[in-house]
Amino acid sequence: MASRINGRTPASKRGIVSKLALAAVSSLAMLASASAQEACDFFKNKTVQLVVPFSTGGGFDIYGRMVAKYMGPELGASAMIVLNQPGAGGLLATNKMWVAKPDGLTIELTSTSGMITSELGGAEGANFKSNEFSWIGRVSGEPDVIATAPSGSIKTVDDLRALGSDRKIRIGSSGMGDIDYIEATLLTEVLGLNSEIITGFEGAPEVYASLGRGEIDLFTSSQSAGFQAEKAETGKITWVLSTEKTADMPDVPAIVDFVGPDKVSLIKAQADVVAAGRSLAGPPGMAEDRLACLRDAFDRTVANPDLIAESQQLKRPLAPLTGQQVADLVRGVTADAPAEYVEIVRKSFGN
Amino acid sequence: MSQAAATQRSRTDVYAEWAITSLLLIMFAGAFALSLKWSAQTAFLPRLLSGAGAVLVLVRIGGLLRSALSHRPVTRSAPAQVPAAPQAGADDEKVIELLADVDEEDQGNEDELKGVFSNSPLKLWVEALSWLTAFFVCFYLFGLLLVLPVFTVLYLRFIAKKSWPFCLLYVTGTAGLIYFLFIRLLHLPVPQGVFPLISL
Amino acid sequence: MLDAALSGLMMVLSLDSIMMMLVGIMIGFAVGILPGIGGPTAMALMLPFTFGMDPVLIFSFLLGMKVVCSTTGDLTSVLFGIPGEATSAAVVLDGHPMARKGQAGRALGIVLSSSLVGALIGACVLALSIPIIRPVVMMFGPPEFFMLAMVGLVFIASLSGGQMMKGLIMGCLGLLISLVGIDPHAGVPRYTFGQLDLWEGIGLVPVVIGLFGGPEIFQLMMTKNSIAKKSTTQDLSGVFDGFRDTFRYWKTTFMAGAIGAGVGVVPGVGGSVAQFLSYGYARQRSKNPELFGKGSPEGLIAAAGNNNAKDGGSLVPTIAIGLPGSVTGAILLNAFLIAGLNPGPEMLTTRLDVTFSLFWIDIIANVLVVLIALPLLKPLSKLTFTDGPILVPFLLILVVLGSYSENNSLFSVWIMLAAAAFGIVCIRWNWPRVPLLLGLVLGDHAERYLFLSHSLHGWSWLQRPIVIGLAIVVVFILYSALRKSGAKHAPVESNA
Fold first, then answer.
1. Among candidates B184, B185, B189 on the partner chain, residue whose Cβ is nearest the Cβ of A83
2. Considering only alpha carbons, which residue of chain C is nearest residue A178?
3. Measured in whole angstroms, how far is the alpha carbon of residue B157 from the centre of its chain?
4. Which residues of B touch A24 (CB under 8 A)?
5. Between the CA atoms of B15, B19, B25 and B29, what dihedral angle is there, to the nearest 10 degrees?
6. Confidence label for C235 from pLDDT (cuts 50, 70 and 90)
7. In this predicted model, what pLDDT tens digit does every residue of B22-31 receive, in sequence order?
8. What are phi and psi of C329, to 5 degrees?
């Protein structure tokens, strides 16, 4: 009866029900070996482990599972299994990956921006060089945005400066060393703000709740978290933290338009770090041909229309880059980062 | 049990109280010492809590000292004719009211467990601990998939005195459940040992 | 609004959504029996199967799974003394002693019936709060969260098993242990001794499993007896006695549900502490507080009744402003996005029917769980009469897997072992374990929100009305705990 009210045919829904029941019970064997093309023979009948450095159920995990489901068959592997290895904000898994056997059977979906900033900032516990990992490709990368309170008076950079002459601008952050802390420090620097960074929030939704209550003035987050906050009316995206506007938000200006010419390189460096996003990497020193196999399989995976459809359904958009592009991007921001930028990152780690 | 045995046990309890309390003092003091090199905000709660903990432990040590000096520790009204059964023994075992606020009325479930842990002969401790050690060493070295059948069969044969068919059924059932849930349904990893002899 | 409630009900009352609920309940039942791998893990791993489904079907599936996991967590707590989830630790305190007395059936009856009543209260809180949901959620900020953590902490006094001094020491220790890991403000690792495994703190799940389950298994290995004493009559028919208990102590049941739903609303602090608030409060106002911890039906009701109630409450901040109240909430937030729903005003206006369907799903799933679990209670309670050694290998594997699955790391297994050893020492020498757990649960929140309150509001946070109200509650609880313990000492002495 409810289905009639909804105007949907019961049959199709029952189809989903039975499909799901079947899937749950027989667990859907992951479509293994369905479309193994001319994948490198090495991976045939092997199990590839995709390490996700965060717990099950988060955004990272969803990306990992989505990619693993489609990439396993592309490699010709018998299975590609997601292994959640949370700890130390991803450093635990990344440190392990740094010393893992580079046979291509263990790869990681890295939080690349976190990895790079930990390295640049001299974070305790970061025992790797991001540059030397065997980069396979970027799954997603979205710009960060700067949000203000939905009801607040801050609409322009001038408003910020005016408010800053009265009292300190409050910028929310999860804690020192987090990417939002680095961005808060960076904004203070490039806009010359009179600011105070409020730390200790547990994740972006909590900072947005605080922004919604009007307790803080600014917060930077990923674009998708910003969208969610706009829908929930706890934040308003006011600038894009980048050197250019994004296609999704043509009306929102890029922050680079409001900074002095000498600070543009800082914004670019941060935008590049963030752009490294979520990327696949293997341990350093992987054999050329093995890495090439993985890169090819990855490129085919992200071109798969089923994967693209699924990612849209899940509101987890893909933004693929090839392995070579990621490697270049990472080298660019680690080896060639402006000294002033490195200084800001180090300061954000308390170093 | 004899009066002598009861005295012996209460003495062990006094030693244990001292040991636990001293250990706690060392932990709190150590935690305080470690916090000294942190910034004021980072160290605020650690210092507050380890400080408060240390003070409380010191007060308690004061109480222990007072009762040690004033009179020998007494078991509360320990009736000498208590039957030897472990559970019943728990009652006179309630030991040493060293501080006025001890009120074992509220221990409940813990009373029975406490009885077991206080009255079991050394042999039982050694036996249970050996089995556990074997389990965890084997688990660490060879992973869950080996320890599951081996430990289960050995334990059921030697301790539970069960027949072979029962063991087989038990192992198949447990392994089947874990296989279904972890491998098939949830795709969760099962702990592998340092030298995994069986892997999936 | 009534329209939305009705059409929400119609959406849920379809064959498909009931089917989905059943599938979810089945999976949840199997998974929930494993300690540690409760609702969140199962839900997260099943999330991919919901791609492309209708919102109501997704929530029937996921909430069904969640509800049954709350209940099965309580089942293992009662039967084996091993908390199935961190949120069912308090159920062990009275549930397991009842099983030892041979009243497993009655205890399980209490768990089922009080969970159901609690869930109904929780669902009602969810439904009634819909018109005022946003302003209410917005009223609670870091100062209020901090004060709620304080309310939880003062129960250390009454949950110390009468040993105030030892309880306070254990509470301090628990709070101190909760600080292990990266400091939430300065990002400095504290008490981690160079171990990256400790950076995110000591996991609650392995500690709870070890602290409560460890001694029980060890005890079975030593005595080789069955869980229930052989001498007791095999009273398996007690399930309905349990149902009656729930209604006999209807005030406790209602209070447990209300506390669960109310505290469940508070993000972060909710789940793990609601059980102790409810249990501690029930103990304070009980006529027979001395029976608590010895198999008091009242204590079990207080603990079990709030568990399912908080599911309803924890949806409130997620729906209102997209702020997940717990791990489960975070996964549900993902599910909202998958279903194309945007938490916030949209869910309170144009998609109000879907929001109401959550409320109906919560109710119907809880009823289904009771109906499904009912025939299983007898065979399950028989387990408490089987020889201990038969259970030992299975239980050992359960606790190892349960703690391992928290992070897929052996480190958690060692934490669990350490907690088990510590638990045995605590029992042997009369150190109360509950204050330690309370400290461990609340320490992180207390610190986080104390500093946040100060940096957001200076000292003026102390003048906020809700903060003052909660401070009065704290004083009241402390006062009545002290008065009770003072009053109780005299008769205890004469008993001895």
1. B189
2. C187
3. 26
4. 185
5. 140
6. low
7. 999 999 999 9
8. -60, -40
